[in-house]
């Protein structure tokens, strides 16, 4: 009887240890390795859906022989680390332009519908634009609603890279190296209202804005995104007291006429894995209110896709704050991260 009791106690101890270890893993104490998704998911946007998954969407790119070149690839994950390919957002290219590619999507939910904003453009396009597709489900299929505007409509060259801020009012921000602009959106998430306004100069594209403690943080991309190992893309930041600006860098300069403060740039050359061209970011705040910066970057060991385009896998880095400013440790993409998001 005594021996049996000791075995039972020992068994309970083992169960407790295993359970504790599992809880620690769930709380994000185990690290991960970048990239978190390959071969490519450029210009990522992410949403936590009602089904418990995070869904990420990226620029139209060739993935592999089986998947081909999806019209906005969709991947999903429970933990932001292990991702699985879901499919493509659109079954066919929108018909409001004669030709183009679907770049730099933006996902957000309005009421019961998932809104997927996208850029429709080719390199050097004289009249690119921003469109909207909608679905009841994050995995699609999405139904195209057409163009919100083109460059000719809105009077801004290279009108791509949409970003949405929901609120009262809603805002659409956009722009690529011809100024960053904003405009109000009606509650339908499709119709613009009022006049456009400018928040940043022509050094930036790929806007991301978030609010923290009554301040608005701007993160934009500068430099060349898609020149393989020669890409100079990096993330620069500024902040403002009002969503409409003015946005100032750490030196107090308005980014209408100045560059932002560097948040993340490419790795210095050296031993180990090297990433260049980090940019076009989004962000997730986990259950512990920790911030996770999500972006693409270029692995210098495999910088190109089979068709010759720049290969831009999905990356994730923890982000903290010092003296009221975002900080990524080392200021460069890290390969090994010693903890993971608390999202369970």
UniProtKB/TrEMBL annotation:
Alphabetized InterPro entries for the sequence: GH43_arabinanases, Glyco_hydro_43, Glyco_hydro_beta-prop_sf
Keywords tagged on the record: Glycosidase, Hydrolase
Coiled coil (residue ranges): none
One Pfam family, short name: Glyco_hydro_43
Superkingdom in the source lineage: Bacteria
Active site (catalytic residues): 43 (proton acceptor), 205 (proton donor)
Single GO BP term: carbohydrate metabolic process
Keyword Hydrolase found: yes
Pathway, per record: Glycan metabolism; L-arabinan degradation
Site (Important for catalytic activity, responsible for pKa modulation of the active site Glu and correct orientation of both the proton donor and substrate) residue list: 161
Record-linked CDD domains: GH43_ABN-like
Gene Ontology terms, MF aspect: hydrolase activity, hydrolyzing O-glycosyl compounds
SUPFAM superfamilies: Arabinanase/levansucrase/invertase
Keyword rRNA-binding: no
Family: Belongs to the glycosyl hydrolase 43 family.
Protein name: Family 43 glycosylhydrolase
